[in-house]
Write a sequence for this structure.
């Protein structure tokens, strides 16, 4: 007899809202998303139906598992560092249609096309948002630690996330 | 006119790679190179840190095989501290390793490499992917998705989290497994067992026969192999000795901490990644006709080096495999077949561990004290033997770190297989999408993990081919 779904789905496949911090802490400002998640977990009360996770460089694996889940979350908020030639530390939402257009056919776990998975989820009806911070430095060799500008952006974005998603999630319970 | 084809990066492998194919004046392949991005500066970054941080830090190296780094680092710490973890600690680690393997091998067979086989290498890229598979074989895809969910859930139950695990610690495992948790995990493992049995049967009946020509010809090279075996020669993926097999099938076994006596590292000026080779060969050569010192890691290597598998169904599959292909089997695409044998072994092994009363013992770790020492830890990562080598001072601070990851072992053979594939498939300047994808298939067989770079939305094309003339001018460009 097959197990019912509620007994085997990992937690991230059962929550209404996912907040995923992406990046590699080993490479300077690329660790922004991970730092945001750590700050949220330390300083905020996370509602029960919100899943906050530091997914590091493993976001593709999670997204592909999520895409194939029987029940999709209502919202996914991806937090990442990008270089869009803005002022270092500036926080902005990257519209999905501004994510890389290339390789839309490749539904892969390849490093770059995480964006395809997010678009796929969006087309499936999930409210997907990519909140990003303009990096100051992403070194070529291992060198952890955020720049001052990007470090100052961490609590600012956390406050914005809490206002937008924690309250809303709490009010829906 | 000399042309250069650049395939960059190869799609459906984890990370970035660039394939450059150099054509000669007649349009035939003169040379090929596979460049991968290596994590640079990690060893230096670790120096001066407390060694006990390594099991946690190394999971940050990449998001692809965090469990392998986590366990190799834990074992290296055990060796540095001079502790032998309690049986339950070791068994919980091995259980997590087997479950992580299940998730990896299912992912690779069905979603990464499977698209080539299920949809066919000449299929349009728009359907040659996981969505295409779901459309073509929806019932199979549904079972695969359930199993992947279960693998993630099992790791969540045993270790708290599947991404960036921290449950394994120097001296053992941080928490015991409750009997109720064991029972829940076992039910999921049973369902995964059914999928593992189905997968190899499905592949043998529907996939491999259809592509026997490709199996017999694509990326074929003759090399030695490396993998871990127990003292009695049985396959083991968590602990044992390294076995380095020559291409004639003879082999030498050695403890992990003697790896530098048997493995040397060659450097090529065009690659950051080193090329490990069998030191006993004396010299290194990737010449297709006269290779020297080259060995391979990963599934096919492990299936070749072991004398037997100590779980019944996987052993039966091994016997059938050897009857068909001999020992050592050299055909590169047999990595996929070997991967399915390993999938079966890992599920059988997980069930065996879950049935072991010791798995729920509360004695899961021992205390450790810092000391000046060198410790080498090794596990078989899905992509090959993963070696962590640490040295500490009397305060337990790292003074030296060396890592050899699975994909690095396969650096030379991947280059050779691509060259072989390109030479046999590109003639007189003629090439098309299917041919280039077959070159990529030769790489994907090794399941290389190249995901050690930063994560950025770069917008780079996943596959891009640029054709240059002998003056370095771009004369053609294509992408899939």
């Amino acid at each position: 007899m097959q197990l019912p779904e509620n007994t085997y789905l990992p937690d991230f496949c059962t929550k209404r809202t996912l907040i995923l911090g992406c990046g590699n802490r080993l490479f300077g400002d690329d660790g922004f998303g991970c730092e945001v998640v750590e700050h949220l977990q330390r300083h905020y009360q996370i509602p029960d139906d919100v899943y906050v996770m530091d997914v590091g460089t493993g976001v593709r694996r999670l997204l592909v598992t999520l895409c194939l889940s029987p029940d999709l979350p209502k919202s996914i908020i991806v937090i990442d560092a990008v270089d869009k030639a803005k002022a270092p530390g500036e926080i902005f939402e990257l519209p999905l249609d501004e994510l890389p257009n290339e390789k839309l056919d490749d539904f892969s776990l390849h490093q770059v096309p995480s964006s395809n998975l997010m678009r796929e989820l969006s087309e499936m009806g999930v409210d997907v948002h990519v909140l990003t911070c303009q990096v100051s430095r992403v070194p070529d060799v291992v060198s952890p630690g955020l720049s001052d500008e990007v470090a100052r952006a961490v609590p600012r974005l956390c406050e914005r996330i809490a206002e937008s998603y924690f309250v809303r999630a709490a009010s829906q319970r | 006119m000399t042309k250069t084809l650049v395939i960059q990066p190869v799609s459906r492998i984890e990370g970035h790679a660039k394939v450059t194919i150099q054509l000669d004046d007649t349009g035939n392949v003169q040379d090929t190179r596979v460049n991968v991005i290596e994590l640079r500066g990690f060893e230096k970054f670790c120096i001066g840190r407390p060694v006990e941080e390594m099991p946690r830090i190394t999971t940050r190296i990449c998001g692809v095989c965090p469990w392998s780094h986590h366990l190799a680092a834990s074992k290296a710490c055990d060796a540095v501290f001079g502790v032998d973890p309690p049986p339950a600690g070791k068994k919980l680690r091995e259980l997590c390793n087997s479950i992580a393997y299940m998730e990896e091998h299912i992912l690779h067979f069905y979603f990464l490499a499977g698209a080539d086989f299920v949809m066919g290498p000449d299929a349009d890229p728009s359907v040659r992917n996981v969505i295409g598979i779901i459309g073509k074989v929806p019932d199979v895809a549904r079972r695969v998705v359930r199993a992947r969910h279960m693998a993630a859930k099992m790791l969540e139950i045993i270790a708290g989290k599947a991404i960036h695990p921290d449950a394994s610690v120097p001296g053992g495992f941080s928490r015991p497994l409750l009997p109720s948790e064991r029972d829940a995990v076992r039910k999921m493992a049973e369902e995964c067992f059914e999928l593992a049995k189905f997968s190899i049967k499905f592949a043998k009946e529907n996939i491999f026969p259809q592509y026997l020509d490709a199996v017999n010809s694509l990326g074929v090279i003759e090399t030695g192999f490396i993998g871990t075996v127990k003292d009695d020669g049985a396959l083991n993926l968590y602990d044992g000795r390294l076995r380095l097999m020559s291409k004639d099938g003879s082999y030498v076994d050695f403890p992990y901490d003697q790896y530098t006596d048997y493995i040397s590292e060659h450097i090529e000026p065009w690659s950051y990644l080193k090329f490990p080779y069998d030191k006993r060969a004396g010299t290194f050569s990737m010449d297709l006709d006269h290779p020297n010192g080259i060995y391979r890691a990963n599934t096919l290597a492990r299936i070749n080096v072991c004398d037997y598998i100590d779980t019944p169904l996987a052993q039966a599959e091994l016997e059938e495999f050897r009857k068909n292909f001999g020992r050592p089997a050299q055909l590169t695409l047999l990595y996929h077949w070997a991967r399915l044998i390993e999938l079966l072994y890992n599920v059988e092994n997980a069930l065996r561990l879950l049935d072991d009363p010791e798995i729920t013992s509360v004695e899961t770790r021992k205390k450790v004290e810092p000391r000046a020492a060198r410790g080498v830890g090794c596990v078989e990562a899905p992509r090959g033997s993963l070696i962590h080598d640490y040295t500490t001072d009397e305060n337990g601070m790292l003074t030296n770190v060396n890592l050899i990851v699975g994909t690095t072992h396969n650096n030379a053979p991947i280059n050779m297989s691509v060259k072989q594939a390109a030479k046999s498939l590109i003639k007189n300047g003629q090439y098309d999408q299917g041919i280039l994808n077959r070159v990529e298939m030769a790489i994907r067989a090794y399941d290389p993990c190249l995901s050690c770079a930063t994560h950025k939305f770069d917008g780079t094309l996943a596959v891009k081919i640029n054709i240059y003339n002998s003056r370095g001018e771009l004369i053609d460009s294509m992408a899939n």
Notes: The radius of gyration of chain B is 22 Å.
